[in-house]
Write a structure and sequence with these properties.
Two copies of one chain form a homodimer. Chain A is α/β, with parallel strands linked by helices. Chain A has 13 helices and twelve strands. The first copy, chain A, binds a DNA duplex through helix 2 and helix 4.
Chain lengths: 348, 348
DNA sequence: TTCTCCTACGTCAACGTTGACGCAACCGGC
DNA sequence: GCCGGTTGCGTCAACGTTGACGTAGGAGAA
């Protein structure tokens, strides 16, 4: 198999000895710094190659004056969630351009876990962090920020001052969806949303309310279901809605999995071609369902790119006042959101 | 905003000075080592707290004898791909239990990029790596392995000796799918697969061939389309198949996106209830389509857990011969795979 | 010629931490 | 009272690298 488990990695000293120069000269050659003649450079390069020398970045960053680890931390809610994964990928791409690697973790929306991961990152002296803040109190984040760690919040803004953020047009786009449904003639538009501890959920609900107000519709409390965690909860909530004496003729589902659950319930009753539905956040195969699901699509790569751009600016020393970037979501019409209300409902 | 950009992180020396002890004693307290009296421990803890001291793991791992960075590298093809993302998440969960963080990167199935990321990880002295090998030559991986870096390959086995791997029952499960289709009476079963440079694609094709052989069916070359990269290629390939004089009555699609493309083409022609389809790899909403898509589901969390278990064993010093773990995939019947051939085809 | 400046190296210490070891004070046993 | 062992600290050097600085030798100007 293997000559032996772990042999010692060669160091600059080994290279220096072989090339018959000082370690400082090796350092100069490795880092392409001036002060080494062409002949020496070649000798050192050859020695490094033959030993398989690779610099030790941890030792280097310990000694260097800028103290950079060429590593950033990414702390999202759940890396296996497609939204988070796409975001991570976008940040990673941008990081790679800077020769920076990404330490990634899932906070599970748990403040304690987030705090733990935060100190884990700090202990490794990452150059900066891109964080999806957990629902509750953000004091761990704030403390970290106050220590001077460059930080950018994505998807949800900070509850404290002085920190950059990148979010989507949660409120405006939600309003837009409700307005579209109302324009078709819908009067009873239901709202199904995720946990209200999440900022995005609250924003989308507010957008829903604005949409109703904007079109002169009245809010019917029995048409509002919040704090639905996962598709199953959404499915039962939808069933409850459809059992009402006056069921909704249209639904706005404010999150991915909620949309899926609602679709399932509609389909079970054969109502998926009769009740209009607009969902927040696109998902794969949304166009393959019958009918195609109309959604508000977030520009996830743009979110990630923007977050990465901000964090690297800060790491680069940018001291300007905090930016709160907002990336627009787009309404993608596929059929489910264009279903008109039944004629009986528009009667005299 | 901020008192000033980046103030210096407090060090052990600062804590030692405040607590009026030596740095060594601080080290003992921080690491819960014996040799410090209760009173001193309290003094040091108080000092550390009041300064907001946090140990510097890079300095620590430089000096420690075991030289551990408490970090592993994960190198997958594309972190935004749900399969990779779920795998990453499973590895991450296991890593967290060991207090280990994950450096993640996407190799894009590009050997040069993989080599680059590999050295990036090595430079940071990760304790081990979990890698999805790129299609072509694996010499960069092999070199890394020969240096003694603990390594586990996932999804695709090594082309060299002495390295652990975790894969799925690609071949056996593919055969099983074909056998099920043949048992329903299908005679013309098409194969649609991803790039043949990928080991998984080749295995699944072999399984297809085995399935044909096992049931006494003949291979019709015009029913085989390989090297389909993405849903669009799969869609046109499917269209070509359906235009044949004797089109297939069943299809085996050997990858996620290929399945989606094939579904799209079938649906465009209104044949989705007539042509049987079994896909490799599950995907969200597969059950919501009409008909539900029958798939071979990989146990992704199990793959990830196993990979993590292996890598941590190796890091822990396990010297036993290499393991090649194989996690079974399951056939999930949802409708599309249970469509019988048209009666005209089974005639005399 | 002598003075200055530049190039191409080398020496030394330090980054923050811990392993090896030293040493004083105290304990118990005889 | 002396001896051996333990407890509770401290001192020193080293991990692999680089910043600050030193210096020998040659080129060029005066």
């Amino acid at each position: 198999m293997d000559s032996r488990g772990a042999r010692r990695e060669p160091t600059m000293r080994d290279v220096a000895a072989l090339a018959k120069v000082s370690t400082k000269t090796v350092s100069r050659v490795i880092n392409d710094l001036p002060g080494a003649g062409p002949e020496v450079v070649e000798r050192v390069r050859a020695a490094a190659r033959s030993l398989g020398y690779r610099p030790n970045l941890t030792a280097s960053s310990l000694r260097r004056s800028d103290r950079r680890s060429a590593t950033i931390g990414v702390l999202f809610e759940d890396l296996s969630n497609p939204f988070d994964a796409a975001l991570l990928r976008a940040v990673e791409d941008r990081a790679r351009q800077n020769g920076v690697l990404v330490l990634a973790g899932s906070s599970e929306d748990d403040p304690d876990l987030q705090r733990e991961l935060l100190t884990s990152l700090a202990t490794r002296r990452v150059d900066g962090m891109v964080v999806m803040a957990v629902g509750g109190h953000q004091d761990a984040l704030q403390q970290e920020r106050e220590r001077g760690t460059p930080m950018v919040l994505v998807d949800r803004p900070p509850t404290f001052d002085g920190t950059d953020s990148v979010t989507t047009t949660n409120r405006d786009s939600s309003r837009e969806a409700v307005v579209q449904l109302a324009a078709l003639g819908h009067r009873r538009i239901a709202f199904l949303g995720d946990r209200q501890t999440l900022w995005t959920s609250r924003e989308r609900y507010t957008g829903y309310l604005e949409g109703l107000a904007h079109t002169g519709l009245t809010l019917h409390h029995e048409l509002v279901h919040t704090d639905l965690h996962g598709p199953d909860a959404a499915e039962t909530a939808t069933a409850t809605l459809l059992d009402l004496d006056q069921p909704p003729t249209a639904m706005f589902t404010a999150q991915n999995l909620v949309t899926v659950g609602a679709m399932r319930a509609l389909r079970d009753r054969g109502l998926h071609h009769r009740v209009a539905l607009i969902g927040f956040d696109d998902f794969p195969l949304a166009d393959m369902l019958e009918p195609g699901v109309t959604v508000l699509r977030q520009d996830v790569p743009a979110l990630g790119r923007k977050a990465a751009e901000l964090i690297f600016n800060r790491i680069g020393g940018d001291q300007s006042p905090p930016t709160h970037a907002v990336v627009p979501a787009t309404l993608v019409q596929r059929g489910s959101g264009e279903i008109p209300p039944p004629v009986t409902d528009t009667g005299p």
